Amino acid sequence: MKSTPVTTRVSRKFKEFEAYTTSIPEYTLLPFRFHRISNKKEVIVNEIGDFLVVPAGTTARIVAREIKAGNSEDQELYADLTANFFISGNSVPNLIDVLATRYRTKKSFLDFFTSLHIFVISLRCEHTCHYCQVSRVTSDKSKYDMSIPHIDAGIAMMMKSPNPHVTMEFQGGEALLAFESIIYAVEKTKVEAEKHHKEVTYVICTNLAPLTDEMLQYCHENGILISTSLDGPAFIHNKNRHKPNANSHQLAVDGIEKCRQIIGAEHISALVTTTKLSLEYPHEIVDEYVRLGFKNIFLRPISPYGFATRSKDKNKYETGKFLEFYKKALTRIIQYNIDGYFIREDYASIILKKMLTPFPVGYVDLQSPAGLINSVIVFNYDGAVYASDESRMLAEMNDFTSQLGQLGENTYEEIFYGEKALALSDVMTNESLPGCSECAFQTYCGADPVFNHTTQGDLYGHRPTSSFCQRNMEIMRYLIELMDDNKEIEKIFRNWITGRS
Ligand code: SF4
Fold this sequence. Notes:
Layout: E1 28-29, E2 32-36, E3 41-46, E4 51-55, H1 58-63, H2 75-83, E5 87-88, H3 96-106, E6 116-120, H4 141-144, H5 148-159, E7 165-171, H6 179-196, E8 199-205, H7 213-221, E9 225-229, H8 234-240, H9 248-262, E10 268-274, H10 282-291, E11 296-297, E12 299-301, H11 312-315, H12 319-338, E13 344-345, H13 346-356, E14 376-379, E15 384-386, H14 389-395, E16 403-406, H15 412-416, H16 419-425, H17 449-456, H18 467-485, H19 487-498
Parallel strand pairs: 6-7, 6-14, 7-8, 8-9, 9-10, 10-12, 11-13
Antiparallel strand pairs: 1-5, 2-3, 3-4, 14-15, 15-16
The structure holds iron/sulfur cluster (SF4).
Iron/sulfur cluster (SF4) binds near residues 441 and 468.
């Protein structure tokens, strides 16, 4: 008797995940990157900037799934890795929503779009600083001051920003030489801001030399902040910031004192620009800030723009030299804090805030997507609109790559969403830039296509030879190393970001 053949139905359904693995890993890796900070240690940094310093070789062990929760030597590390979102016992971590919320918070500086609106109110200046980045001119007020129609158009554009809180910053040249234009712009903005429900912060960047009591009184009445430059003691400041037939340092020191009296110490801040000469005097520069009673100091390298590029012997130095200077100055600043005098270094504080807090930091030079357009826009004295302060400095060198349009001619949409803006947006996130995409410090760093273009002739840039990258990578590594080596320093750093003295 013939038997009836049995037909088995073949299922085309996917099997469960386990069917495709030989063994189930003890944990799932969450996105993180690592960097060797010394021969013995490496730092691992997760997607939201939390970091752990671990013995060298730990990353390899994590990836090879060698960290065992049940192993007594690994227990603490396993718990730290889990608590800080480096690994998860489940394939999709229970706390994924918390991770997503923290990521959104870190990027929330993007929520409202452009905040800082720089008005180059005049290109005229009475100083002849050899490192001047804006290539000042001394004559012809009508040609080099911002015209009323351009001021009006700039204010109208600022009012179109979706951001409810905007900053109007007056720069030069020397902005105070066009103080009447500043008064006009502030008065007009006050009226417009009320109509558009905007809160406006006003800042004047000035060398303080033309400052009068009347100007300060106006600043006081209108809550205008003053930002100035002080490069250190007189012998450095006067060499860097030369004013014909005058003592620029004394004028700055007197101006700072006057500002403190009339508008209040918290409304005046100063920046250091580091020239080749400055590199030799890190202690003297810090000491001068302490002598003048400052509670903060911002150590900046020279920018590769404007006149700065024309006096190469005075202004060109290797990034390594700046880093040496920076570390010596930072050590001096830390020592002052240990000795009981609170003073913080601003650049380190910006990075530390990114490392040690869940909050966003809207510092335009260390932002991804980049600060240009998203956070800052520049209206030049002649009505040209630039993507950043550096872009207009570049234009002074006849390079108009990041000129976005012209006040009075182009609409808000043409400027902020036009072809130039879109081209820049291709290269403004370090998450997708070669080199940065796998860098441990990506969350703390930023993208700067204009800097790349200026120094390397290419908006994408080449990280291994980039001075921006070299400087930031080493400062970030150094700050982590300092905190790991010395808990007293970590405490000082935490005080810097909370402002606790
Ligand atoms: S610029 Fe350098 S330090 Fe910054 S994220 Fe890119 S690779 Fe890292």
